[in-house]
Design brief:
With about 290 residues, the protein is mainly alpha-helical. The chain contains seven helices and three strands. This is Trim14 protein.
Length: about 290
């Protein structure tokens, strides 16, 4: 009885000779290949043996097709390895350029924030100068008015002395004559005095302006930066809002550079086994 153990087929010799024996009919050479079972069989197997009715082909032709597919697969692997190496080089180069771009962007931000600080410092100086200028102008008016009041006091002190001297005159005629001489001036001093009430100088408009300015900046900065950038029209137009850090654009290689191997058993048998695979692959290349 023939052994049921299936032995691995030996490599095809260059001259086409084959020393394989059929696992079912050990006295016969295995010259055919059963595509359904994936075994090398003799000529009797598809006619009388266990492989009756199975699709078969010449083992030598099937082996040649397999060798061709193996060669194509090896070439595909070499191509893919080269593509992976290209991807690595491209990623490393892009990473270096990204790091340089990040450093230059941070340097640009440092410059812009420095300019912003200088502008804010300048604005602070201008606001304080505005307060100092208006304060000095107002104080100057106050000083001039106070000086005018002091002079009026001196005039009134002098007139008060004159009136007191007139009041001491014992001669009625002399007293009346002195009174007549000072009557108009006396009436002037006896008229109600206008009191000076300085109008308070307010710097609240300046303070409110910068208070609103600071609150607007604070409200803006309290919003997460991602949200602020997405709301920015320039950011939306740049298309950056649709990409995430580390996004990779993956592209399929052209059919001429790809080898698509399909291993569905039924399709493989229906299309002629390894020979059919080779023919289909050649059609795909065209």
């Amino acid at each position: 009885m023939a052994s049921e153990t299936v032995r691995a087929p030996a490599p095809v010799e260059p001259n086409g000779a084959c020393n394989w024996r059929c696992p079912e009919h050990s006295e016969r050479l295995a010259e055919l290949f059963c595509r359904r079972c994936g075994r090398c069989v003799c000529a009797l197997c598809p006619v009388l043996g266990a492989h009756r009715g199975h699709p078969v082909g010449l083992a030598q032709e099937e082996a040649a097709s397999v060798q061709k597919l193996i060669q194509d697969c090896s070439e595909c692997l070499v191509t893919k390895k080269r593509q992976h190496a290209d991807n690595i080089a491209h990623l490393e180069d892009t990473g270096e350029r990204l790091q340089a771009y990040a450093d230059s962007s941070k340097a640009w931000l440092t410059q812009k924030f420095t300019e912003l600080r200088l502008l804010l410092d300048e604005e602070e100086v201008l606001a304080k100068k505005f307060i100092d200028k208006n304060t000095e102008l107002t104080l100057q008016v106050y000083r001039e008015q106070a000086e005018s009041c002091r002079k009026q006091i001196e005039v009134m002190d002098d007139f008060s002395t004159r009136v007191w001297v007139i009041s001491l005159e014992p001669n009625p005629i002399q007293l009346l004559q002195a009174y007549i001489a000072t009557k108009s001036e006396m009436e002037q001093h006896m008229s109600p005095l206008e009191l000076s009430h300085p109008v308070p100088l307010s710097f609240e408009p300046v303070k409110n302006f910068f208070k609103t300015f600071v609150e607007a900046i604070r409200d803006t900065l309290q919003t997460p930066m991602d949200t602020r950038l997405k709301q920015n029209i320039n950011y939306q137009l740049s298309g950056s809002s649709s990409s995430k850090p580390g996004t990779l654009l993956k592209m399929s290689p052209s059919p001429e550079r790809s080898l698509f191997l399909k291993c569905k058993t039924q399709e493989w048998e229906r299309e002629g086994g390894w020979v059919g695979e080779e023919q289909k692959w050649r059609r795909d290349r065209k």
